[in-house]
Write a structure and sequence with these properties.
Blueprint: E1 4-10, H1 14-25, E2 32-39, H2 45-49, E3 55-59, H3 64-74, E4 79-82, E5 88-89, H4 93-103, E6 109-118, E7 122-127, E8 136-138, H5 140-149, E9 160-162, H6 163-169, H7 180-191, E10 194-205, H8 217-233, H9 238-241, H10 245-260, H11 265-278, H12 286-297, H13 302-315
Parallel strand pairs: 1-2, 1-4, 2-3, 6-10
Antiparallel strand pairs: 4-9, 5-10, 6-7, 6-9, 8-10
Helix pairs in contact: 5-7, 8-10, 10-11, 11-12
Length: 329
């Protein structure tokens, strides 16, 4: 029985999945099984995967969360890694993750930093924890603070989770769709401590299919408000997070407003106003300035808005967050 199972869900990523598999075969840690869940691909994914020593399973298209859950059910390992088909593991990623989990049996999952890269420019950024500067074990509630009050800096491809803990937390919620990673990590952190490895464990590929363009703002509204409701209705977390309740809701309102921008300007303005109303001190921060700028832009006609967008992209460094990245399903 392998120590680690790597689940690779894929949908029409034949042009990437071979590199992802090879990055696992090149690991310094060798006691690994690879399970590829083909979620209804119509390209030559099956042909590409057949060249590698993996377990391949095809299913009708059900979405990323369902594909991961299918992979979990098929795994045999004590630990499970969820590698996106367009990402790559660094050579010692699994070795470092297993070492941490073996040394800390109380930990539910580990995660690490992610190097951003694309095939044209190479590496152009690093995603790391916004509040941890070194490798450490953190209480799960402290990890939720970062996820629910700031931003999701957990790249799912870097996560190695204990199988027993995944089963207790319930796996991935298929209703969350693009936000299932965020929800999964919060559900795990509610129950178990988390290990942060302050080193790059994954190479996160940035490409047009992976960016969270045109995320359904109504889905974002439903998901983020549900996550907040779950936190404050859970007796294990409600009292702990009460001092940060206004800030948490403001953070989620801001995210909904950002996704609604360009698609439903009224919805965007509504949630910006809610974000300010529930947490007025936010306006004294850089985030508040950004929200004020976004609010003003919602009143602009399309052409001036697009010009501002082009200028911002041209003169600012690329900043790409992980939420919303998924196979194009």
């Amino acid at each position: 029985m392998p120590r680690v199972s790597v689940v690779i869900p894929t949908y029409n990523y034949a042009h990437f999945v071979g590199e992802a598999i090879q990055s696992i075969l090149d690991q310094s840690f060798r006691d690994v099984e690879i399970i590829v869940i083909d979620d209804g691909s119509t390209d030559n994914t099956a042909e590409v995967v057949s060249a590698f020593p993996v377990r391949y399973f095809y299913q009708e298209n059900q979405g990323l969360a369902a594909a991961r859950n299918s992979g979990i059910r098929l795994t045999q390992g004590e630990y499970i890694n969820f590698l996106d088909a367009d990402d790559l593991l660094t050579e010692d990623a699994l070795e470092k993750s297993v070492e941490v989990l073996d040394s800390h049996p109380e930990v539910g999952f580990s995660y690490g930093q992610a190097l951003l890269f694309d095939d044209k420019r190479g590496f152009d950024g690093l995603v790391k924890s916004s509040f941890l500067n070194s490798s450490t074990i953190v209480d799960g509630k402290e990890q939720i603070k970062e996820l629910a009050l700031f931003s999701n800096r957990i790249t799912i491809s870097s996560v190695v989770a204990r199988r027993s803990c995944i089963e207790e937390a319930g796996g991935f919620n298929v209703e969350m769709r693009r936000f299932q990673d965020h929800h999964f990590c919060i559900q795990m952190a509610k129950k178990f401590p988390v290990a942060y490895i302050a080193e790059p464990l994954v190479k996160y590929r940035v490409h047009p299919e992976a960016l969270h363009k045109n995320v359904d703002p109504y889905l974002a509204e439903r998901v983020f408000l549900l996550i907040a409701e779950e936190i404050f209705s859970d007796p294990d977390t409600a009292d702990y997070f009460q001092p940060w309740k206004d800030q948490m809701y403001s953070h989620y309102y801001q995210k909904i407003a950002s996704y609604a921008y360009g698609q439903d300007m009224r919805l965007s303005r509504r949630y910006i106003r809610r974000a300010v109303k529930v947490h007025p001190r936010m306006m004294l921060t850089g985030t508040g300035i950004s929200m004020a700028y976004l609010y003003a832009k919602t009143f602009l006609p399309n052409r001036p808005r697009m010009l501002l967008h082009i200028l911002k992209r041209r003169f600012s460094a690329p900043k790409r967050l992980m939420e919303g990245k998924s196979c194009p399903q």
